[in-house]
Request: fold
Amino acid sequence: MKGRVVNVRIPPGIHDGQAVRIRGEGEPAEDGSSRGDLHCQVRVAAHPFLERHDNDLVCRMPIGFTQAALGAVVEVPTLTGKAELKIPPGAQHGQLFHLRGLGLPDLRSGRKGDVVVQALVEIPRHLNKAQEALLREFAATEDRSVLPESKGFFEKLMDYFGRTGQ
Reply:
């Protein structure tokens, strides 16, 4: 049997493990009549920053705690380059942001998914003396009653301690 090279068009949005059929490029029939179809199974390589979830692409983006608190504009990788994402003030660790239509196309409808950015707020491990002084000054002004997660947690904690008599 003689080998040959066949060019195959891989449609955008194909999933790992799916097959592409190329009509008339398979083995010839035993009676010498027309060739069968060639089925090519596709393996999609991993992207260094984007993880596929159906037609959406997820990017886990580390941001500084000051960016999360004050808001920022960050550059996010996409399949076609980079895009700007506005992080609003008060962003929380794990919060999701969508860049609509920058994901993968659906094989049937052609509608594109999103790039979903998950903010991963990083807390510095080491502070210099000036940074530590500024944070201590800020901590002295903090009002826990305006922090939605803390407020709910501490209310539940007080109810719990009140009920158990501890």
Observations:
- Residues 148-164 form the longest helix (17 residues).
- The chain has a mean pLDDT of 88.
- The radius of gyration is 27 Å.
